[in-house]
Design brief:
The structure is a homotetramer. By secondary structure, chain A is mostly helical. Chain A folds into two domains: 1-49, Arc Repressor Mutant, subunit A; 53-201, Orthogonal Bundle (Tetracycline Repressor, domain 2). Chain A is built from ten helices and no strands. In chain A, α1 (7-24) crosses α4. The mean pLDDT of chain A is 93. The interface between C and D is large, with 55 and 55 residues. The first copy, chain A, binds a DNA duplex through α2 and α3.
DNA sequence: CATGAATGAGTCTTCATTCAT
DNA sequence: TATGAATGAAGACTCATTCAT
């Protein structure tokens, strides 16, 4: 029997691509550089992915899908909405901290992608939003959260807040100007967001 | 007068570029298409701008700079921090509503730019953040706003919320999936953000 | 038996390749598509043929070789040169009619091949020409055909006529323009060619 | 005023391409080599032609169009159909003799092109056929030529004969085998074709 | 200043062929 | 012998930018 398409190779391409996308940005990323970093030939990339877009989309969907699964299981058995939102923030932030390059890619490239790729390309992001929306909605139905706000808007803007928290973190490394004025740790940031939200939603 | 003429051309390039960037995204935008839309020759672009990057940066800085000036003057004489934040949101949103293509460009391309361009490229954005930060800081100093949150974080995450509000609005047009689930007007969105913030910050 | 099996595979590759060459042309034909059509793996092709060129050459030589053998046996015992030429035309045309895809390949790719491959690649075509030349030559020697024409030229140009007869037939399917103006059956075409030739050679 | 697209450059691209196509065949011809031969940059090619196909099509249509115009004017005032066919053969052959590389391209690549390009791509060839058909048709109407043959078939097969006459000539240079067996001059070939045709059509 | 033709570096992707299994 | 994943050379075409007019 001949060789089988290897999961390991696929994974190494995704990892290498994440690094290259983080460093140069999606558009300037070169297939050859990804291949080199993954220790394979350029052509091999195209045995696993249709094209560069497909790699980026796969990174998003697989990593965020993973995060979603983590979230869902972490939320199991937790009842308090505040605590649930806290878990969502913590889990998301810690996932990003553990893979800074993925954080950079999500922060920087996701917007572009949502606009210029199809909606299936960002299905996992929509799923992530769904999770947050459900938590808030549930809080509202149980009379814990105020009902005069739109749960979907809260979810979406919370995502924006989270993204920008990560964005400062990521930018600090490149731009001294930002580093100097906005030297804030992810934890401090999370704390502030949570405080505002906790009081703001009740 | 020569100077007059130049300003008009410069302006028409910026307008044309905004449209093209909105439609295709910065990286795929072609100088020739910008020139055509501006009714000038390609070469002329380079009499007014160093390169494509320079056009994008100019769009950001000039339009956001304008917004900043509008904000500053609108905030004149307004004392209440809640009202001031409300003015900031309203002005920003109405500026974007009046120039949807600019909204698309800001929403989609700003992130990329902040990362891969220098910090002067986004000086006006930093200035915008400064304005928000000051309002919150001022509210804290006057004992109106709680002091256990970081004003800079609030400002930055508020920007994230605002961006994502615009993002849904912009995305709705491209992705039916989003349109269907997140059919929210900018005004409704703003209302929710304000409510959470108002209670959350006190 | 192993040998038997091999011949079957070899044959199925030639058949599949003929179809693919007919559809896309030799240069754009993909080995993978040939393999798929032949229900084998790509690699297997290279156990039977040196390369893509080799497949095309084999198609030519084997099919035209077959035609040559058919011709030779059909000409056995026929004495009249006119009748012999008629047999050559009929047999050739009917062979092509029975394998339209091969007709397309011969018509379209033979020229290229004759130029860019070696002369052994087209040895069977040269043999085919030889057969025609001999018939004419023989007619001349027996005083039936005029002697003031060059038998080799007549053979070669007769081949050109035959090719173009097939060419109209093949083109008609792709180009409506041709179909419309040159809607001629192979039989009608053959009739005209024969009439001119019969009188022209005496 | 800026530079104008130059007819000279366009022409030099066509000339260079003809040479390269003759040498390597259309599919293996490299844009860079054409550019080098034409003393221009690769990109310049694409200011004048949409793509490689477009170059080949232009070569065909412009050169054969030219030939058609020459033929039409040469046929002016000539009454005798035999003489007219003779003129067509002579003019075509002499045009090819004067531009051997074009002859190679026509002989080798035209077939491919007729099949895989659109019919406008070969409009000039169809026009050439039209000219021949008209001559024969006219001969038939005037009772000089026999009426029991299809003028269109005669035209098309005559084209095949002409092509193969050129083909031997072209092949002789590459394949010693052919050179050895078919060492026939264009003029001798023409003579034979004309003799057969002249008697065959009356 | 305006023009737009010329430039040529740059890169994704294809696909025939190889070779380890 | 059959397989099909891996390979990597190869090349058409793009497009931002320049500069002669």
């Amino acid at each position: 029997m001949a060789k089988q398409k290897s999961v390991a190779i696929r994974e190494s391409i995704l990892e290498a691509a994440t690094k290259v996308f983080a460093k140069t940005g999606f558009y300037k990323a070169k297939a050859l550089e990804i291949a080199n970093k993954a220790n394979i030939a350029v052509g091999t990339i195209y045995n696993y992915f249709k094209n560069k877009d497909d790699i980026l989309i796969s990174i998003f969907n697989e990593r965020i899908g993973e995060l979603n699964r983590t979230l869902i299981s972490a939320l199991q058995g937790v009842d308090d909405p505040d605590q649930r939102l806290s878990i969502i923030l913590s889990s998301s932030i810690s996932a990003m901290k553990n893979d800074r390059e993925f954080a950079e890619v999500v922060t920087i490239e996701l917007r572009q992608s949502s606009k210029f790729f199809s909606s299936t390309a960002i299905s996992s992001v929509l799923e992530f939003l769904e999770i947050i929306t459900d938590v808030i909605h549930d809080g509202q139905k149980r009379g814990i959260y105020r009902s005069d706000v739109d749960a979907r808007v809260v979810a979406w803007t919370l995502l924006g807040s989270l993204e920008n928290l990560l964005h400062i973190w990521v930018l600090s490394d490149r731009l001294p100007e930002v580093k100097h004025r906005y030297d804030i740790s992810l934890e401090e940031g999370k704390e502030t967001v949570e405080r505002v939200l906790r009081r703001g939603l009740h």
